[in-house]
Design goal:
The protein is α+β, with helices and mostly antiparallel strands. Helix content is about 65%, strand content about 10%. The protein has helices at about 1-15, 30-55, 65-95, 100-175, 180-200, 205-225, 245-260, 300-305, and strands spanning about 205, 230-235, 240-245, 265-275, 275-285, 315, 320-325. The protein has a five-stranded mixed beta sheet, with helices on one face. The chain has a two-stranded antiparallel ribbon with strand order 1-3. Helix 1 runs antiparallel to helix 4 and helix 2 (about 30-55) runs parallel beside helix 4. The longest helix has about 80 residues, at about 100-175. The protein is rod-shaped and about 115 Å long. It starts with a helix and ends with a strand.
C-alpha cells in the first residue's frame, strides 16, 4: 500500500500539474499522504466487504457470483471514497481554483479507480489463494484419513485370516495327537497375544517381529515336524529397524500354503537380512493341488508398504526357490 500510494501520487502530480504559486500548500508529501489514506481506506473497506459477502457466498460454491458482487461493491465504494476524499482535501487542506480543482478531481477519480481495481484484484487474489491453501490442507487431511482407514482395513484382514488358519490346524491336531495339541495351544496363545498387543501399531521393531516369528515357526514345527525347517539369519545390529507387524508371518504362511511339506522333501524357509532389506526364501516344491487363497498375502504386504516407502517389495522366483524381499524401514 505504501508503494502503491507513492506511484498514484506521482501519476496524479504529473497528469494534473498545479501552478507553482500553489506549491506551498499543494506539496508532493501532502498528495502522497492523501493517496496513502485513501489506499488504506479502500483496502480495509474491501476486507470488510469480503467478510460480509463470505457469510452469504463462498468461493467454493459460487465463485463467479462471489467475484462479480465483491468486485462491483469494491469498485463502487472505492470511487465514492476517492471522490469525497479529494473533495474534502480541496475544501479544507489545500483549496485550489475551480478549474484546477475540477481537473484534479477528475484525474484523481480516474487514476484512483484504476488502482482501486488493482487493489481489489490483489485483495481477491489473496482471498482466493488463502482459500486454495485451506482446500489443499483439507484435501491432504482427508487423504491422510483415507489412507489410515485403508491401512486399518488391510491390517484387520490379517487377524481373522491368521486365527482361522491356526484353528483349522488345531482342530486336526486334537484328533491326531492331543499332547501336541496342548503344546500348540500354549504357543498359539503367546503368538496371538503378540497380535492383540501390536495390531494397532503401524510399524514395529524388527527384534520384536523376529521373536514373534520364532514362536510362529515353533507352531509350524509342531504341525509338520521334520517336514518343515527354518533358519533366521539376522544380525542383531539390525534389530532397531522397522517393519509392519506380522509381515514376515504372512510371507512364511505363504510358503506353507503353496508348497508341499514332507519328511522326504522338507520345506526349508530362510529369513535373511542386510542393512536395507529382509527376505523370506524357500525351496520351491509347489503343491499339485493349489489351496484356495483369500488373497491377503503378497497383495496385502505390497499394499501396506506403499503407505510407508517408495521402495518396492521384490519378488524373485525360479525353478529352485521363491524369495520375497521387503524393505527395512
Amino acid at each position: 500500500m505504501v508503494i502503491l500510494s507513492f506511484i498514484i501520487s506521482v501519476l496524479i502530480d504529473k497528469i494534473s500539474p498545479v501552478d507553482e504559486s500553489y506549491r506551498t500548500r499543494y506539496t508532493p508529501l501532502l498528495v502522497y499522504l492523501l493517496c496513502l489514506a485513501i489506499t488504506v481506506m479502500i483496502w480495509e473497506l474491501n476486507q470488510f466487504i469480503n467478510c460480509k459477502v463470505e457469510k452469504h457466498l463462498s468461493w467454493q460454491k459460487e465463485p463467479l457470483k462471489r467475484l462479480i458482487i465483491q468486485f462491483s461493491l469494491g469498485v463502487t465504494c472505492g470511487i465514492i471514497i476517492i471522490k469525497y476524499s479529494v473533495f474534502y482535501f480541496d475544501k479544507y487542506l489545500c483549496p485550489l481554483p475551480s478549474e484546477i480543482s475540477e481537473r484534479l478531481n477528475i484525474t484523481a477519480v480516474i487514476v484512483g479507480a484504476l488502482f482501486t481495481v488493482i487493489l481489489i484484484a490483489i485483495n481477491i487474489g489473496f482471498e482466493l489463494f488463502k482459500n486454495w491453501k485451506t482446500s489443499l490442507v483439507e484435501a491432504e487431511k482427508y487423504k491422510k484419513e483415507s489412507i489410515e482407514a485403508q491401512l486399518q482395513n488391510l491390517k484387520s484382514q490379517v487377524n481373522p485370516h491368521f486365527l482361522f488358519n491356526n484353528l483349522s490346524v488345531l482342530s486336526s491336531l486334537v484328533y491326531k495327537n492331543q499332547d501336541k495339541a496342548v503344546d500348540f495351544i500354549n504357543q498359539f496363545s503367546k503368538v496371538y497375544r503378540y497380535i492383540l498387543e501390536n495390531q494397532t501399531k503401524e510399524l514395529i521393531e524388527l527384534e520384536s517381529e523376529l521373536k514373534f516369528i520364532e514362536s510362529y515357526c515353533y507352531l509350524l514345527k509342531i504341525r509338520f515336524e521334520a517336514g518343515f525347517n527354518y533358519q533366521i539369519l539376522v544380525d542383531n545390529k539390525l534389530y532397531g529397524k522397522l517393519v509392519p507387524p506380522m509381515v514376515l508371518q504372512l510371507l512364511i504362511e505363504n510358503t506353507i500354503k503353496h508348497n508341499q511339506t514332507s519328511i522326504d522333501k522338507p520345506l526349508v524357509v530362510e529369513v535373511i537380512a542386510n542393512e536395507h532389506v529382509i527376505s523370506v526364501k524357500n525351496n520351491l516344491q509347489l503343491r499339485t493341488v493349489k489351496e484356495e487363497s483369500s488373497k491377503t498375502g503378497l497383495t496385502n504386504i505390497i499394499s501396506r508398504y506403499k503407505f510407508f516407502t517408495k521402495n518396492e517389495v521384490e519378488i524373485i522366483q525360479n525353478s529352485e526357490f521363491f524369495e520375497v524381499k521387503i524393505p527395512l524401514l
